[in-house]
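Final paragraph of the annual report: two paired records, presented back to back.
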Amino acid sequence: MISWLDLDSPFPDVSQALSDPAGLLAAGADLSPQRLLEAYQQGIFPWFSEGQPILWWSTDPRMVLYTDHFVISDSLKKTLRKVEHSRHTDGRWQIRFDFAFRDVMRACAGPRRDGAGTWISMDIVDGYCGLHRAGFAHSAEVWLDGKLVGGAYGVSIGQMFYGESMFARVSDASKVALAYLVHFLRQHGVQMIDCQQETPHLASLGAAPIARSVFLQHLHQAIQAPQISQWQVPDLFSAPG
């Protein structure tokens, strides 16, 4: 059995998460900024489909990307060099942080190539936009000829970043957004990006599963650091590797 949360109920300890379905911890409550912050500070995240109650999870093992393990393929390096050059010359390509957060979320919520929708409902969009207004959720965006063509978003607490979703409307645009985001986070002392659940795509980028206990130990230390206050796009100069 899992706990049913009222608006003022605390989360149960993550050790109470089920093994089947793996990581399910609780249901209910709301998606207010306060509740979302409480969840992320304890290694808990919401994940549910339209029509379901809010479901809260804490997976074990936990998929994470160490920022110094981010894998950049040769083809992505070429793309990054092209984008970086364009940013400072013709301006066709631009990288922005937090310019169109809601639009990034709505794009991430759109159908994938296989025609399937995502778990990102309008309630999720509204909840994380509230977290964005409070300064704890951020987007990295790729723009081409004035149009948003790729991006990623997530939650930032201290020196901990929780990646949520990415999208691309042109080839490699989501990876470009992630590359600039990783470079920025590394500059600000962020060592780990929480990826939550294991997928082949994340593994190809350098993410790997670790025990939840190891994840929580790092998290509890990282969230004590001062909040990153200035989200400014870094210059890569040359594609990081």
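The closing record of the year follows.
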Amino acid sequence: MKLVVVSAGLSVPSSTRLLADRLAAAVDRTSPADVQVVELRELAVEIAHNFTSGFPGRNLSAAIDAVTGADGLIVVTPVFSASYSGLFKSFFDVIDPDALAGKPVLIAATGGSARHSLVLEHALRPLFSYLRAIVVPTAVYAASEDWGADGLDGRIERAAGELAGLMTGAPKAARPATDEIVPFEQQLAALRPAG
């Protein structure tokens, strides 16, 4: 199983890369995977040249092949101006729009404040829905105050489990089987105390 991690962090070290690595490790614990990391910072010039020439350079071409050939993706971007970074968007703009159709994707982002957490639902999820990828239900946002705080580890594990399940085709958590549809009023009545 091949898992590709796309990290759009710009600094070294990078909280974006740290989150990407923690997500990849959690997926690998759930279901062992061959993990490859694509650092967009290293491809910035080739991405820009691709827009002007129409052809990817050697390293960008290898990154595109890795992403399109993966069984699943983890994509992590820092938040700039309340959205994903321009480098992150530019990378996915140079990939054929049909190449990610049906591919499981875990979306994640980092930022200085929890106020930017909606970037996951208002920018990242729509982007990958447009590309017809299968976005896992749990997205992971890490603000500065989340590192070392309660909650981040649980979100990482939950999202990683969802991605691993989609990559391996493992059955989802079983819902109780019912042969009939029970009207809401009856379900509500069953919850009321007897008497």
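Residues 171-179 have pLDDT under 50 and may be disordered. This concludes the annual technical report; the extension proposal builds directly on these records.
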